[in-house]
Amino acid sequence: MPYDHENPASESTPSKIKEALLTLLIGKDIRHITSKEIAEHASVSRGTLYFHYEDKFDIFEEIVEEQKEGVRKAIFDSLKGMDHINLQDMNLKVLPVLSYVAEHTPFFLNMMERNKMPYVNFHAFFIQVFNKEIMLTPMKENISDTLKDMYVHYRTLYTYAFILFWFKEGMQPSPERVSQQYWELVSQKRYYWIFGLPVQSDEREVRIDRRVIRTRQALQEAMLQLIIEKKEYSAVTISDITRRSDMRRATFYDHYSSKEDLLKAITHGFCSDLIGILTIEGRTEKVTIEQSEAILVQLFTYLTEHTSIVHFISGNYGIPDPIPEIVNVLSTFYLKQQIEIHAGKEMYAYYVSGLIVGLIVYRLQEGKEYTPRFLAKEFIQFLDLKKYKINLL
After folding, report:
1. What is the pTM of this model?
2. Which of 1, 157, 263, 363 is deepest in the core (most CB within 10 A)?
């Protein structure tokens, strides 16, 4: 915990207010938390609360900014005096980010919770943490701005993936143990890990009528178009969707229980397309560099030609962040692969899923100006770490 619970009198008033809000957020949506509750929990008057903050959202915004700075400081402090990272000797026993998360669990548990407000876009959070200054600490490698931009997204997403992995494990493995697994994983990382063999679905395959497929596609396309036009997810109604797709409301409810259910279907459809592109025949370790590049060209071309849910990640569309769901779906695909990973398949699955999403987000943001072929070549070199030595913290 980030605060001194044994001696609350030693805490500053703003600290007590922020701790109170974090504690309340564990069990409640911020929309259902009142200023009176926060003040009572912090043992201060509402007048005192309003002296320091405009409202509860102002309190939370300050918490977020403090946590960003805290992660940055944790990384710098842990690497002080080091000029390299030795994967064999593991001279850094605990990943600084994971250590920081362990000490500030309430905030990060709230950040990962996607079923209640406030939504914290962890991608934007870690993008600001892993800026170009900090990401190469302590190794000052001379790499291009293109690779730096790519690496920021890559690192952001696999950092999220490790935190998600640890939380899903109930935080039972110690930060030291998870860090050790991480070192083992990255020391044996291979570019062909991003590909997989066909897997059997857990659900019985059901033949779907083509009319049903067309109806669902029309509803999904309508929602995507409306989000782009209105620039606000909450402003899109089911009536809007049915009018745009020329469907009856009853037809909508024949296929989806809610707008959120439709959004989830769009996300899963996107994941299915990704998995289809990354699925190969034969042994993955036999995939050549040239074949890998060709598959990645398909991936980048797909992103260029299709308006998918990830296009809204960085925009101000008010969409509940789809990345957690994408990582979860992709990790299920990688968990089913027949591959021996000493560090553990679960960590491998989350790691690879995170780096794939990081690559996709990079393509949709800074990487838009480059051709699919250029990015495919750069990323394969980057994955195998033969061309560039980069600090993997």
Report:
1. 0.81
2. 157
